[in-house]
């Protein structure tokens, strides 16, 4: 089993602009959209580590959400640039827990203008005004939703994610 020290490293950052359909008439982001943003954070983090959900599904592996918690501090608003910071805080052959922070990148209307590339990748700290924090817990399952031990079922995926995390954190 992996240790907390191993997993308490860098955040993966995925930035984007809040879209109109994500906000209400007052321009405030509707609360359920943060769970969608958490999903963006974790899928982009796994992609950066070299594993897409599509790749995992082709191998018969699924990663459903078992639990989720969100703590709201402030509201994101229409046209804000936000960054979803994601990191893995628990990684075992059976389960995986992602931690998230959604932060405002700057004042409303500033930041990405569509012509700039979206800043993504691993960072040692999370920057910006904290809006929402939370986590999601997941289990490795097969297509029949039966739990699987990733280290036995697909050891190359288990080791690949573990090694990629170590490499990103600079620990071996």
From TrEMBL:
InterPro entries attached to this UniProt entry: 4-hydroxybenzoyl-CoA_TE (IPR050563), HotDog_dom_sf (IPR029069), Thioestr_dom (IPR006683), YbgC/YbaW (IPR006684)
Q: Which residues form the signal peptide?
A: none
**Is Hydrolase included in the keywords of this UniProt record?**
yes
Presence of keyword Nucleus: no
Keywords of the record = Hydrolase
Domain Thioesterase intervals: 26-105
**Short name of one Pfam family:** 4HBT
GO MF terms on file? Answer: fatty acyl-CoA hydrolase activity
> Can you tell me which family this protein belongs to?
Belongs to the 4-hydroxybenzoyl-CoA thioesterase family.
Q: What protein does this entry describe?
A: Acyl-CoA thioesterase
Q: Which species expresses this protein natively? A: Paenibacillus apii
Q: State the organism's lineage.
A: Bacteria, Bacillati, Bacillota, Bacilli, Bacillales
